[in-house]
Fold Anaphase-promoting complex subunit 4 WD40 domain-containing protein.
Amino acid sequence: SLSINSLNTNMFISGSCDTTVRLWDLRIASRAVRTYHGHEGDINSVKFFPDGQRFGTGSDDGTCRLFDMRTGHQLQVYNREPDRNDNELPIVTSVAFSISGRLLFAGYSNGDCYVWDTLLAEMVLNLGTLQNSHEGRISCLGLSSDGSALCTGSWDKNLKIWAFSGHRKIV
């Protein structure tokens, strides 16, 4: 997975199957500027935080994490409980942030989409428990440019748009 820093397009991060995230600078050839550790499984999704100084990750280990690009430290871990039916944690397939960065959206292999409070590391809502939620693995997430809606794509062959507040103007 890759994410380009929207505030400095020379910088990008990559998530890897070796459990690391690497920070790259296009002005420095052939090596990563920094490597971040913490996950215990493949990293499936990386996304820069809106301030461009932090980033979030989602992994096969079932966790999302928030890292500070400047210090190299892990700031937060977002853990969910195992499913009631078995003791396996669904893997995190995709992540996205709200415009303010207060919310982290995480898509999971079991069709859930958690909304995490990034400051408190608490789950605010599971879109997977709502009526008409996905019946398959979440494969991608995207936030509208004004932050009013989240789109989730799934292996159930559906895209769903989740509107958060306000009125939608149809153009």
Q: What stands out?
A: Residues 22 and 35 are 5 Å apart (CA to CA). The chain has one domain: 2-129. The radius of gyration is 16 Å.
